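Work Package 4 report. The design task specified in the project plan requires that, given a folded chain encoded as structure tokens, an amino acid be chosen for each position. We show below one input record used in the internal validation round.
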């Protein structure tokens, strides 16, 4: 069984999105999950989409497509040093003092956004890997610094969350992690991320210092 409509495809190792494909496009598209060829359909009735050929056994679902897309989106944003990709923390998941300070200035505040590049700078990210084994786990995206002393794991939550064992493993091994739900914007390809879990209190405390300085000056 496979779903017939997929919003993303690979083309020359790049992710391609429906809004970027026109009817009659002759490029070769392939499925990010199984690598088989996909065809592009833009009819009168159904919205444009990619589809497997009828004999395909691929189990790519909309959820696994989004999961795949989000991982590569993160890795690509880090490589391109894209300041615009944001992680939105619920205010009640922030370290206590930071949360109370934010609320002092805006009592209705519910979110606090951090750019992916703020994380990259803080963790001195040098290298990015998608789905690479680390001990017994395979983080969706794993970053490390030049000396392989500091690690930052990104976990995309679409249909399921990280197990408690995995989170415990990250804590025991001093690996920073952030788990989030990808949110697709109206253009069909821009993502932002709503944080569901993290162990980034040390990083967030440095944000607190930045916040305080901005009020003092
Ligand atoms: Zn497939």
């Amino acid at each position: 069984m496979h779903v017939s409509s997929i919003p993303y495809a690979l083309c020359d190792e790049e992710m391609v999105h429906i809004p970027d494909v026109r009817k009659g496009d002759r490029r070769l598209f392939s499925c990010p999950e199984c690598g088989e060829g996909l065809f592009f359909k833009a009819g009168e009735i159904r919205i444009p989409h990619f589809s497997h050929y009828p004999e395909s056994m691929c189990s790519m679902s909309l959820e696994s497509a989004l999961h795949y897309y989000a991982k590569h989106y993160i890795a690509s944003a880090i490589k391109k040093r894209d300041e615009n990709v944001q992680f939105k923390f619920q205010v009640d998941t922030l370290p206590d003092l930071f949360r109370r300070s934010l609320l002092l200035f805006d009592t209705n505040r519910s979110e606090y956004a951090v750019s992916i590049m703020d994380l990259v700078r803080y963790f001195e990210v040098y290298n990015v890997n998608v789905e690479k084994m680390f001990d017994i786990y395979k983080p969706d995206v794993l970053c490390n610094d030049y000396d392989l002393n500091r690690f930052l794991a990104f976990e995309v939550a679409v249909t399921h969350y990280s197990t408690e064992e995995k989170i415990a493993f990250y804590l025991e091994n001093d690996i920073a992690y952030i788990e989030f739900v990808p949110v697709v914007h109206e253009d069909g390809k821009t993502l932002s991320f709503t944080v569901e879990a993290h162990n980034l209190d040390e990083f967030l405390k440095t944000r607190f210092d930045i916040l305080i300085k901005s009020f003092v000056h």
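The first strand starts at residue 8 and ends at 11. Validation will be extended to a larger panel in the next phase.
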